[in-house]
Amino acid sequence: MVPERPDAEPNSPPWPPQLDACTAAPAYHAILFENAHVRVLLTRIPPGHTVPLHTHCWPGVQFFESWSPLVRRDPQGNVTLDTRTLAEAPKLNTPLWLETLTPHTVENVGDREIISVQVEIKSAK
Asked: Which residues contact 102 (CB under 8 A, 6 or more apart)?
């Protein structure tokens, strides 16, 4: 179980800072741009890789440049999303809204690299 931060300021991440995607999984996440309002991340997950436990503390818009099926799991290993069960895969380079993502891992269970760009909105309430 990952504790939330009771001392968190408004608009600050509710989880420990070491779970931030860029800190907990730097081999998979790179900051392309950041200011006080937004953070733009590049995520790359090769086939067969599992991204370590991490969070995305702000909601935002995600664009997939390359897609492969994935499985998202919570800290206890329970499957919270298996995209192989979805009616259709996301369309490439089409914006998708994402809410804040609690601590999770992501496993690329397909045969292609997952590449996405995510614009996280820091000032969102």
From this structure: 2, 15, 55, 74
Place of tokens 């968190």: 8
Name which of 99, 16, 103 is nearest 52 in CA terms. Answer: 103
What is the DSSP-derived secondary structure letter of residue 8? Answer: P
Buried b (16+ CB within 10 A) or exposed e, 105-124: bbbbebeeebbbbbbbebee
* Phi, psi of 22, deg, nearest 5: -75, -25
Q: What is the pTM of this model?
A: 0.87
- Distances 76 to 9, 20, 34, 64 between C-alpha atoms, Å: 27, 18, 31, 27
CATH superfamily, region 27-121: Jelly Rolls (2.60.120.10)
Closest CA to 118 of 52, 57, 50: 57
pLDDT reading at 91 higher than 80: yes
> What pLDDT score was predicted for residue 1?
44
Please, how many CA atoms are within 13 Å of residue 117, restricted to the half-sphere of its CB? Answer: 10
pLDDT at 108: 98
The fraction of the chain above a pLDDT of 90, given in percent, is 84
